[in-house]
Amino acid sequence: MPIRIPNALPAREQLEAENIFTMTEYRAFHQDIRPLNLLILNLMPTKIVTETQLLRKLSNTPLQIYVELLKTASYLSQHTDPSHLDSFYTTFDAIKGQKFDGMIITGAPVENMDFREVDYWEELCQIMAWSKTHVHSTLHICWGAQAGLFYHYGIPKRALDKKLFGVYAHRVLKPSSPLFRGFDDEFFVPHSRYTEVWEEDIRKVPGLEVLAVSDRAGVFAVKTEDSRQFFLTGHPEYDPDTLALEYRRDVERGLSIPVPENYFPDDDPAKAPVVRWRSAAQLLYTNWLNYYVYQTTPYDLEKL
């Protein structure tokens, strides 16, 4: 079944070229099925790239999903054409009276800043508070996960000695968790960050569960006992070339940046990266949608 997106969204052409099943709003309107209503708060500067990455992962499911894209009103993106934002994004004031089956809060390149120094921090806090009563299950990614853990539970982010940059092996601590149903004993996830959250800080908080970790990258997946909030510290949605583009961008800027670990064959940036995370990423997003959104959300969203 398809993911339902606006007729003219740029990601549609790319997804259809990859043989990913999408459905225009016109066609979806004529089907007698209640779609899942999903809100994506996109905090990444490369908004179209992030839209495409996330929509790709949300597409492989027998569910019809209506996606609403959300931007901050307190900070105007400097890297996305304003006409794109005006055409496809909404603001919190416009949707705060609605309820959603699921929500994704993306990462953002602000991790070296104190949370309270981020231009849109107050707005983000307002949205996260709202999500507790208006969203059935919320998935936080990378900096979005750090921000969520700090806002909801006071868990601080910790500075790393150097940037964690590469693709790392992970293991599931709770094999019975539906989020990791069908996973192998070892799975891989890309990471790109200067900060982390400590497992010992998380385990001090009643009601939080650590689901998956990495010997090299630390905590990866955390959720609340009621499964209303999920926190992922990596980027399972990344494209094959995302880390390569980031590496080359920083090299061109003259920055001291290590070659991404476990990514290029023989650590040679001239060689094409080896993708080892695609299947696990697809399964993770499908499991979240199926077991934690579709299977448990009320048919009447007003009953949230």
Short description:
With 304 residues, this protein is an alpha/beta fold. It contains 10 helices and 12 strands. It has helices at 10-17, 25-29, 47-58, 82-88, 92-95, 121-134, 143-153, 199-203, 242-252, 278-294, and strands at 3-5, 22-24, 36-41, 65-70, 89-90, 100-105, 135-141, 158-172, 187-196, 208-214, 218-224, 229-232.
Q: Give the strand tally.
A: 12
What is the top-level CATH class of the largest domain? Answer: Alpha Beta
Class from helix and strand fractions: alpha/beta
Termini Cα gap: 25 Å
CATH homolog superfamily of the largest domain: Class I glutamine amidotransferase (GATase) domain
Taken from the alpha-carbon principal axes, the silhouette is globular
Gyration radius (Cα, Å) is: 19 Å
- H/E series, N to C? EHEHEHEHEHEHEHEEHEEEHH
What is the architecture of the largest domain at the second tier of CATH?
3-Layer(aba) Sandwich
Which residue ranges are poorly predicted, with pLDDT under 50 across at least 5 consecutive positions? none
- Strand count, sense and closure of the main sheet? 12 strands, mixed
Mean pLDDT: 92
Please provide a written account of the structure.
By secondary structure, this protein is an alpha/beta fold. 31% of the residues lie in helices and 25% in strands. It folds into 2 domains: 259 residues, Class I glutamine amidotransferase (GATase) domain (Rossmann fold, 3-Layer(aba) Sandwich); 34 residues, no CATH class. It contains 10 helices and 12 strands. Strands 1, 2, 3, 4, 5, 6, 7, 8, 9, 10, 11 and 12 form a 12-stranded mixed β-sheet that branches. Helix 1 crosses helix 3. The longest helix is centred in the last third of the chain and has 17 residues.
